[in-house]
């Protein structure tokens, strides 16, 4: 996709057109929950001591050009990933062997931004509605109450405190109430043990939640939606570990469970995507054709371990050679942006770890994905920056399953693609996390290339 094919996109605007567009984007973003709490570097604690202000999340002013064929293939293959991770989460022994000694984290950022403009080249993106439907499906699958006497049911969002990135979560909660008549509550991860309990005399292990604002009222939790508990820094005490174990032991459906959390780790990605790895067939060969498995594999970039295997030694050779490392990124088992080491910085980082190979075994080495650069404008912290940008497409999915007999695989109850997120950053930027302040929420303008 050469930029010269569309030299006049995005269009140059007059100052009046730019002001009009910017005003509408700001208002639409706040109206639709595309907002964040401002960082302390932008609005100081003295100005906003109660953390009550909100600003528009970083957003592009124009949808970015994206090949229709690639976009449609990404959406089509998404349900295969759902099934793959359900199968991986089932295989505890395999997971234990793969991710032992690693801490993992994942994140989400459901977006409603592409509904701002709807034309044939701008596909709809009902991610809030689709993800809400997925949570509602879990809620329905759990019912009825397992308590005696029965308690009213709810969904609990396990959140960070404070939480800058809360407004898309509120959009999900509002949709669950308006479209599905499901009550939701927000529970800071740090307050888990204070406000939830599992009755010792009930073998069904229902999770009981009592809101801090109404401690005499009890609800039974059908579904836990984790928007916290992903980063190692959140497990800084025995209480935090006990809180996660407490939730995992309950009957509530977890989104995700700890096993699914581990299945989504970068180490598992590396095991699946290392060239000539047999592990993808291990999980999909019984349910998918060789052609379909190859379609999944075609979405992988080459990823290598840093260990004593042949692939690991090959990767260490690259990571320690300034002449070869420029086309790679070194990733720890973290999410959220700001954690990766790029290009010529990799050999210096490896050298800083010394001779103890255990210090870098937790990292993976991945070939850099280099999409073509496009022009766009990004609105962030009240200002607009224009220039060359690159995008990263992610496709959401909903998958609900349960386990039957020990030897059987998971029974898939629901499995669908649930919208997308396009994160765009400046061409020279190494990170792309929106919540971390590196990228911007974007949408696609599909083209036939």
From TrEMBL:
What does the record say about how the cofactor binds?
Binds 1 Mg(2+) ion per subunit.
Q: Where does substrate bind?
A: 169, 423
Q: Which top-level group of life is the source organism from?
A: Eukaryota
- Look up keyword RNA-binding and say if it applies: no
Q: Which chain regions cross the lipid bilayer?
A: none
Q: Which reaction does it catalyse?
A: gamma-L-glutamyl-L-cysteine + glycine + ATP = glutathione + ADP + phosphate + H(+)
Q: Name one Pfam family in it.
A: GSH_synth_ATP
Q: Which residues bind ATP?
A: 266, 331-340, 342, 366-369, 392, 425, 431
SUPFAM superfamilies referenced in this protein's UniProt entry, alphabetically: Glutathione synthetase ATP-binding domain-like
The cofactor(s) it depends on are: Mg(2+)
Q: Which InterPro entries match?
A: Glutathione_synthase (IPR005615), Glutathione_synthase_C_euk (IPR014709), Glutathione_synthase_N_euk (IPR014049), GSH-S_sub-bd_sf (IPR037013), GSH_synth_subst-bd (IPR004887)
Q: Which UniProt keywords apply?
A: ATP-binding, Glutathione biosynthesis, Ligase, Magnesium, Metal-binding, Nucleotide-binding
Q: What does the sequence similarity comment in the record state about its family? A: Belongs to the eukaryotic GSH synthase family.
The identity of this protein, by name, is Glutathione synthetase
- Organism of this sequence: Lepraria neglecta
Show the taxonomic lineage: Eukaryota, Fungi, Dikarya, Ascomycota, Pezizomycotina
